[in-house]
Amino acid sequence: MKETPLSNCERRFLLRAIEERKRLDGRQTYDYRSIRISFGTDYGCCVVELGKTRVLGQVSCELVSPKLNRATEGILFFNLELSQMAAPAFEPGRQSDLLVKLNRLLERCLRNSKCIDTESLCVVAGEKVWQIRVDLHLLNHDGNIIDAASIAAIVALCHFRRPDVSVQGDEVTLYTPEERDPVPLSIHHMPICVSFAFFQQGTFLLVDPSEREERVMDGLLVIAVNKHREICTIQSSGGIMLLNEQVLRCSKIAGVKVAEITELIQKALENDQKVRKEGGKFGFAESIAKQRITAFRMEKAPVDTSDVEEKAEEVLAAADPPPDLLSVSKPVLWTPGTAQIGEGVENSWGDLEDSEKEDEDEGGSDEAIILDGVRTDVGMEVSNTGSQEAPIVLSDSEEEETIILEPDKNPKKTRTQTISAKQEKAPSTTPVKKRRKKRTAN
Amino acid sequence: YVPVKGDHVIGIVTAKSGDIFKVDVGGSEPASLSYLAFEGATKRNRPNVQVMIGNFGFKKGKTSKYSEGYLNGSSCCFSSGTGVTLYHFIKISFSFLFLTRLLAPDCEILQEVGKLYPLEIVFGMNGRIWVKAKTIQQTLILANILEACEHMTADQRKQIFSRLAES
């Protein structure tokens, strides 16, 4: 599918908003979106949500023979995939440029920084080493894939446990998880990518661009830093000219942000560890059940003309812990009413839709008479049900034969009267027929 | 979006070809809009769609079932023929269900929103809404409110609106 083109007026609006230091979702220039980390039942499986951008990471391992020129080192393999559900524009063959760029950046960030001790992955020098494979899947694209992917990769690697191996002389014993507890990988440090988007030839800068902002940005600067403030990777794309003081400033900001994110990751890992030890429930089933309720929750909304930000979510989730949005063991504290409402609303909307349709039916006759000029917004009479089945071909003669009836009586009437194969149509089509008849009558 | 005859849609002009504009309405094919559909346009005096690619206009959709959409721009088309530059607006995408709720005759959401600030809203049945208010801040607020209102109950909405009204 093609991407919806970004209209000029939207682009202008976004740029003007950025000039006034306002972002679409009410963040400040250096604010990250809320990061949520949840773990699956397997070791090494995690889902990271950066706002609405979601990345699933899975680590697996295998015993293989090492590369010839590196006989004592394990092998690391990274793979990022842009799933088609992430954005309509992602198709199996089409997103290659972006994909290649992201993959390369991720590899440089994680492999070249030597965050994982590959020597420790060696089992028998020259013969058997561990091959660690990190698979990342982008589940939803709302901007800033690279940050989310790097967080997911590092979290998955930290979470992963490989089977224990012991070597006695020439004998190598591989223990199953039941025999001996699996062993974590030895990770030196956690490099995390931070993205900076530049606008207006480098005048304005935003951290963690969302999808809209990414579309209008001039260039992107990605800096991968670890919590010891060591820069692991730095990449600038888009061809913008940056001053060296800008780059230095960005690296400082990145250092601060990464410290916060690393803390968050540590907490999430600890929580998961605790839950597993205590034998509590862990895994996606637990966290996703809660997320489903929060899926209807809106994040902050910029409200208020006097530059004081109010958060819509404060209304919705009174007791929700705002800063550390973790997973598993931290339940989302919904007041019972709102949790119910979250699911109850879903059901009642179904009813609303039906009752609305019938109301529109009754109101439809009046609206047909009223001239279009009265309503400044879109006339709805033709909209709702008309769109539900586009290929209705009703000849005029048929329409005039149908008689106005109560909506619930219509199914019986139309089945006997209409000649063509409309009989198979669901009863919900009958309000349409009634409406069309009225329109032709006027 | 599946184009339907008689729908009002918001489209984005993507290309000029011959005598028509190609407009993206979110359907499977682009729709076509003739030059002559704009106010004050004649064959000699072509509409000055200033910044061609990516502008949008509000049009009445008249799409036939089989061929690609043909738009009859009988309703106003701004940003083109009139040459008005548009400020302070934003286009957002919405689910269809929410749109129909908003378009119901006595929509509370719209009334409450209208009490807050003077604003202009245009709804397109292809799931796009165009919002304009006096300042950028207000427009952003409106856009976010509309997005949030989709999943809120009436009580929660009232709370938010009352908080806004105070500040």
From TrEMBL, chain A:
Location (main, coarse): cytoplasm
Composition bias type Acidic residues, residue spans: 351-365
Region (Disordered): 337-442
Listed InterPro entries: ExoRNase_PH_dom1, ExoRNase_PH_dom2, ExoRNase_PH_dom2_sf, Exosome_comp_Rrp42_subfam, PNPase/RNase_PH_dom_sf, Ribosomal_Su5_D2-typ_SF, Rrp45
Presence of the UniProt keyword Cytoplasm in the record: yes
Cellular component terms per the entry's GO annotation: cytoplasmic exosome (RNase complex); cytosol; nuclear chromosome; nuclear exosome (RNase complex); nucleolus; nucleoplasm
Domain spans labelled Exoribonuclease phosphorolytic: 32-163, 189-254
Keyword RNA-binding recorded: yes
Leader sequence residues: none
Biological process annotations from GO: exonucleolytic trimming to generate mature 3'-end of 5.8S rRNA from tricistronic rRNA transcript (SSU-rRNA, 5.8S rRNA, LSU-rRNA); nuclear mRNA surveillance; nuclear polyadenylation-dependent rRNA catabolic process; positive regulation of cell growth; rRNA catabolic process; TRAMP-dependent tRNA surveillance pathway; U1 snRNA 3'-end processing; U4 snRNA 3'-end processing
Location(s) in or outside the cell: Cytoplasm; Nucleus, Nucleolus
One Pfam family from the record: RNase_PH
Skewed-composition ranges (Polar residues): 416-431
Biased composition (Basic residues): 432-442
Subunit structure, as described in the record: Component of the RNA exosome core complex (Exo-9), composed of EXOSC1, EXOSC2, EXOSC3, EXOSC4, EXOSC5, EXOSC6, EXOSC7, EXOSC8 and EXOSC9; within the complex interacts with EXOSC3, EXOSC4, EXOSC5 and DIS3. The catalytically inactive RNA exosome core complex (Exo-9) associates with the catalytic subunit EXOSC10/RRP6. Exo-9 may associate with DIS3 to form the nucleolar exosome complex, or DIS3L to form the cytoplasmic exosome complex.
Family: Belongs to the RNase PH family.
Record-given protein name: Exosome complex component RRP45
Organism from which the protein derives: Myotis lucifugus (Little brown bat)
Gene name linked to the record: EXOSC9
TrEMBL record, chain B:
Classification via InterPro entries: Exosome_RNA_bind1/RRP40/RRP4 (IPR026699), KH_dom_type_1 (IPR004088), KH_dom_type_1_sf (IPR036612), NA-bd_OB-fold (IPR012340), RRP40_KH-I (IPR049469)
Domain of life, source organism: Eukaryota
PANTHER family attached to this UniProt entry: EXOSOME COMPLEX COMPONENT RRP40 (PTHR21321:SF1), PNAS-3 RELATED (PTHR21321)
Organism name: Myotis lucifugus
Gene3D superfamilies the UniProt entry points to: K Homology domain, type 1, Nucleic acid-binding proteins
GO molecular function terms attached to this record: RNA binding
Gene Ontology BP annotations: CUT catabolic process; exonucleolytic trimming to generate mature 3'-end of 5.8S rRNA from tricistronic rRNA transcript (SSU-rRNA, 5.8S rRNA, LSU-rRNA); nuclear polyadenylation-dependent rRNA catabolic process; poly(A)-dependent snoRNA 3'-end processing; TRAMP-dependent tRNA surveillance pathway; U4 snRNA 3'-end processing
A Pfam family the protein falls into: RRP40_S1
Localization: Nucleus
Protein name: K Homology domain-containing protein
